[in-house]
Design brief:
Elements (H helix, E strand, L loop, with lengths): L1 E6 L3 H17 L4 E7 L2 H10 L4 E5 L8 H11 L4 E6 L5 H4 L4 E6 L4 H17 L4 E5 L2 E4 L3 E7 L2 E6 L3 E5 L2 H4 L7 E5 L2 E4 L3 E5 L4 E4 L4 E3 L2 H12 L1
Parallel strand pairs: 1-2, 1-3, 3-4, 4-5
Antiparallel strand pairs: 6-7, 8-9, 8-12, 9-10, 11-12, 13-14, 14-15
């Protein structure tokens, strides 16, 4: 599930923007949610510390000592792959905004049609940019960083994240070459993201994640898995 975050200094604008986004998600069956919509810059920065943001939508002029550009710069340092969308009524900010690898720049007043075009184009860009995202189906893409493990389930693969599980018809042999090096097979039925592992229980041959989920370690894969994990 894609996580959208919105920040604006106006509560009415924030509410309107959120409703437009949610309508787009519903109309196009997009697997996404608005994780945070806030006027509080401190709340936004605290949220970024413990949550993965896929799309950040910011008003540039936040009527504060800290601008939307400042927020974008701080978030970008931590999350290189985040998609940033700016919007404002001040056209003179347009060139400055693109300094922060901006995906799009929306001028107020923003229409439903203009926002929809941006969101759909963003999804297409995610589909093409396979280095950061995995396409589950035509409407669902997930960030590789969010995946704890991939489980084989008959003819399907189940991509398990902290909160959700997504299944698709595929096989380990087909996806293995497209996964980054931090995805390692530890069992005939599991490929895990070692970056999300919180503990390896060698005695009980299991791998634990921060949502109390776990995978088994198979004897055939144990030595290679431990070698990679320890590095």
């Amino acid at each position: 599930m894609l996580n959208f975050v919105i920040c604006d200094d106006s509560s009415p604008i924030l509410t309107r923007f959120s409703k437009m986004l949610e309508a787009i998600f519903i109309n196009h069956n997009i697997d996404a949610n608005i994780g945070l919509a806030t006027t509080d810059l401190s709340e936004l920065l605290n949220y970024t510390k413990s949550n993965t943001i896929d799309v950040l939508i910011l008003d540039i002029n936040l009527k504060s000592d800290v601008s939307g550009c400042d927020i974008a710069e701080m978030v970008r340092k931590k999350n290189k792959s985040v998609y940033i969308i700016f919007y404002t009524g001040h056209l003179e900010y347009a060139l400055l905004a693109y300094k922060y690898k901006t995906f799009d720049y929306l001028c107020k007043p923003i229409t439903q049609e203009r926002l929809e075009e941006t969101v759909l184009r963003l999804l297409e860009d995610m589909r093409v940019s396979s280095s950061n995202f995995i396409k589950i189906n035509s409407k669902t893409v997930i960030n590789e960083k969010d995946i704890n493990y991939i489980r084989k389930d008959g003819m399907k693969l189940v991509f398990c994240t902290f909160e959700h599980a997504y299944s698709t018809y595929n096989s380990f042999s087909k996806i293995s070459s497209s996964l980054p090096d931090n995805f390692v097979r530890c069992h005939k039925s599991f490929i895990i993201n070692i970056n999300n592992v919180t503990e390896v229980d060698v005695k009980n041959n299991s791998v634990l994640f921060n949502n109390n989920d776990f995978c088994s370690i198979g004897a055939k894969y144990k030595n290679h898995f431990l070698e990679v994990f320890n590095k």
